[in-house]
């Protein structure tokens, strides 16, 4: 890949409309869970481990870096442990990136918390679609994944 292409599908399961409705239609979760289980064996081991042991729900992006030579994208998040009890930092690396697309509904606005994400198995690749509170969406098409997690201190004071 000489450069990162800009394309991507809209989220299919966890849509802005579903989120705005209060996530009341639980069949959406069931349908995605069924789909995820059908593709999980095609996903990289590190990605499955991340999904089973961590969460990006309510996480905030702190930085994004791209390496066009290595075809990698790294996204850093301030997030929470799986039970949403303890603050953590996540650094997720997308390897073998074919495309990275960011869409925003409002210019110069915060993208807000990451609400929902989903994966789709493509021909030899995976697409991760992330939907943020502002309606912004990130799409990454990649073929491998790795991550790191570290504890984060909450700043208290007034």
From TrEMBL:
Superkingdom of origin: Bacteria
Any Pfam family matching the protein: DUF4085
InterPro entries per record: DUF4085
Record-given protein name: DUF4085 family protein
């Amino acid at each position: 890949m000489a450069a990162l292409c800009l394309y991507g599908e809209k989220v299919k399961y966890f849509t802005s409309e579903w989120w705005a409705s209060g996530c009341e239609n639980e069949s959406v979760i069931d349908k995605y869970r069924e789909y995820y289980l059908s593709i999980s064996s095609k996903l990289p081991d590190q990605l499955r481990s991340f999904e089973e042991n961590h969460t990006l729900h309510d996480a905030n992006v702190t930085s994004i870096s791209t390496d066009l030579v290595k075809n990698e994208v790294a996204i850093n998040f301030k997030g929470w442990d799986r039970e949403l009890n303890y603050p953590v930092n996540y650094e997720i690396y997308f390897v073998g990136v074919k495309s990275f697309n960011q869409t925003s509904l409002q210019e110069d606005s915060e993208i807000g918390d990451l609400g929902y994400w989903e994966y789709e198995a493509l021909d030899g690749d995976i697409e991760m679609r992330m939907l943020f509170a502002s309606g912004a969406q990130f799409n990454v098409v990649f073929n491998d994944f790795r991550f790191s997690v570290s504890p984060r201190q909450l700043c208290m004071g007034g």
